[in-house]
Fold this protein.
Amino acid sequence: MKQLPPDLKYTKTHEWVKTQPDGTVLVGITDHAQGLLGDMVFVELPQVDREFKQENEMAVLESVKAAADVYCPISGKIIETNPKLQNQPELINQDPYGEGWICKLKPSNESELNNLLSAQEYEKET
Amino acid sequence: MENNLLIFEQNSSGRYATSQAPNKIMEIKDIPKNYLRTTTPLLPEASELQVVRHYTNLSRKNFSIDTHFYPLGSCTMKYNPRGVKTAAMLSGFLNRHPLAPESHSQGFLSCLYELQEMLKEITGMTAVSLTPMAGAQGEFAGVAMIRAYHQSRKDYARTEMLVPDAAHGTNPASAVMCGYTVKEIPTLSNGDVDLNALKAALGPHTAGIMLTNPSTLGVFETQIAEIAKMVHDAGGLLYYDGANLNAILGKVRPGDMGFDVMHMNLHKTFATPHGGGGPGSGPIAANDKLKNFLPIPIVGCKENKYYWLDEQAYPNSIGRLSAFMGNAGILIRAYAYIRLLGKEGLHRVAEFATLNANYLMVQLKKAGYTLAFPTRRASHEFIITLTPELKAYGVNAMDVAKRLLDFGIHAPTAYFPLLIPECLLIEPTETESKETLDNFIEAMTKIMVEIKTDQRIMKTAPQTLPLKRLDEVKAARELDITWGHHDDATREH
Amino acid sequence: MPFIPHTKSDIQTMLNTIGVSSIENLFDEIPQNIRTGKFKTIPDGLNEMELMRLMQTRADQDKLDFNFIGAGAYEHHIPAAVWDIVTRGEFMTAYTPYQAEASQGTLQLLYEYQTMMANLTGMEVSNASLYDGASGLAEAILMAVRLHKSSHKILILNSLNPNYKKTVKTLVSPQNIECIECTLENIKEHKNKDFAAIVISQPNFFGLLEDVDKLTDWAHENNSLVIAVVNPLSLAILKEPGKWGKTGADIVCGELQPFGIPLASGGPYAGFMCTKKEFIRQMPGRIVGATVDKENKRGFTLTLQAREQHIRRAKATSNICTNQGLLVTAVTVYLSLLGFEGLRRVATQCHSNAEYLYKKLLELNFIKPLFPDKPFFHEFAITLNKPIKNMAGYNLEKDFPEYKNSFLLCVTETKTKEDLDLFVENLAHGK
């Protein structure tokens, strides 16, 4: 089990959020979540420019034996998706907090960050 | 010497089974050129003997009921009587065109009519439509009938279908195909539905509930009468998923439990072949509330004359589900099977399916396996969980499933139902002998020893089959679902 | 006569092991007040000899010697080897190949089938089959709506098989998908009306051939997908949907019955579905993929299962679980025996027989073509100027009241010139 990066925010549905210096955020899923799903075979990424509300379904992860929705951790507009995941979905397994990021979004309501869990709180949840 | 070639890898240009096609190619004069094909697709080029040998050899790489014990839970892999097959393949049945006039269809129609009548008595319902082509299509039909019922009463607020979390995946998928949103109802630790959660979920939005009984957890839902009352009081209807009908045949009927509409899987309860994944057949039965909405066509009878009932007779029908009469040949098989068993025989099916399951359950417990519901009777099937073995020895349910193949036994259903981690769902059926069951118990006993002493052999099973464990991740990531590259495979002719 | 092998002593030993005194005790969790009494009206059981006598009597009632009914189900020669192989227990009594290592026979066969169908239709990928042609079209429509994302409307050329239209309506209308019919004459009025897909059948229900290139390009210009419904046998001579128009049809489906599946009163048959690779994740049904085992040997397994109901549940592409495995076995063996060469011989013989009968019939003064001077495959429609009792074709009036005294006739390779001459002669003499 990889260590939970302390500087990230987490959701009960196993997404993480990393605030960037420019105010945008990166979103991915936790190491715990990728472990439950197993070897990733496909990622259905959200369309750039689409807007999502907090807790909306925004992406789908497929492993051989399971499929899981990724819920938007904080309302906002998609600016970029991880282009490498198209051909290397296994990056989510190998490096969930780094190269396995899923998308970048521009939050529309930054106060929602306060609803999210700290690393410590997330650890208790799992 | 084992041959692993694809049929295409044996192609010899220009070869085909010459006695199977007309002697010459006729010239086409009257179709415009731009409508015609100009390419030669990749298809086999082999002699009749090559083809027969290739597919006969392929068949030998399958486990099947005819060759192996096949205790696949939730699938009722019982013996498919050969006489039934022979009867259904008589030329009068086989060569009858689906649109042949009724005057030349009386034999066929009489079988279907009698099947409808017998299924009514078996299910405790008042009307039957045989047309759904599989269990999932039966589910669609039944839920569509529930929808049609509410709409006929102008009760448009009912948009939600309740489904227990233990249900087959088809239940929520069918409800969604009918335009419903699905609400999951949790299960208690003894396998019964959580009535408090059900109560909280019920309301003016409830269209109905889809239940399997015995549930997919292999136990009988004892609160069924109470559930039926609660759902009906809330204005909803009850759908019975007949996947586990073999467990209760002749013991308790869905109609008497309070269900309004249901499907049967003829390929489970009524011994029609599974065919490597189809054809199935999923007739549905309904009570008086819903019978006007049944899918068409249905067979009618007046003064010993049989005829089709269609839109005219059933103006409120949800409609057609296939171009003709569903999987007619499977219906003939189910009819013949029920005639073989007769009323006495039907009562004995559930008795011996249940006896076999309970015997296996007790013996596997003695062999050291953990039962998912130790305080309950098995129905026609039961669940063991490998969670303790996974924790202690790193061996999981899939390893046990694969190791059983080495003992010449098809694996039970693994990882379903999703609620029970590391589970195996075991259904022996009534047609297996005590000797076969004892052989299975012996294999499972040996496997328990191996789990504790030889994890390597468990992790690398199967050892004795033509192939070792397959890389499913590669299959999904590097999709290869047709042989040869498409553009290379097609050439101009 | 149930197929239960237990002896009295088996039963006693098993009950002792379980620790109950009777089988009845095993049902003690079922509340008494809902228990079933004895069945009353179901007949007593039969032995196999008695069953065969009964079934033979029933089957013998339905002999219809000489007819030209097609309309979606076609009489063809079925090589004896096909059903000899299909009814081998190893194919017939296996289940869905979830345990790949124990199901390589079925899995390799399905992979071969997918390859054959993709090549025959000129598409990139095929699934492992659906229930039948009509329900397969409904699945194709649902798929097109998922792919298109913005439209819930489908345009259907009204020359589609009427039973397909009815089946589609049943299966797609609960999801608020609207199917609008048009004719070749008024299709232009539907320009730019935002249809997710257009359904084109080739040949159409009346056996006629459509200008599929023009229709396909028109659809694509209007931002609609093209769903082709084709008789797969016709593809031995007709242009494959992958080559229709500039970029080909998008989803191809149809009925596999002409490939080695007996008429059998309408089923079990099987539907096929092929598409472009980019659309595969929205395709319903089982799909088999090639892979390798631990020792790098080639093998086959079900793949892309995360689309399916047993994993995706309410979010699956379809509720379908089974394909029509056994019928696909028949199709695969049939196609292997015939090859493209054999298929072309069958298809051209069908066409040439149909042309022959068509011309012969038009020589009779009371028969007129319903659609004069249109090319057809192996089926055509005629109108009678005088009533004929028991006309051996499919009466069109039931589904198309505007076509009075009109019949659809189909001729395949099974009829000889003598058969056809005799039929015409009988008609001429009012028999």
In short: Chain C touches chain B through 198 residues (CB under 8 Å). The first strand of chain C starts at residue 125 and ends at 126.
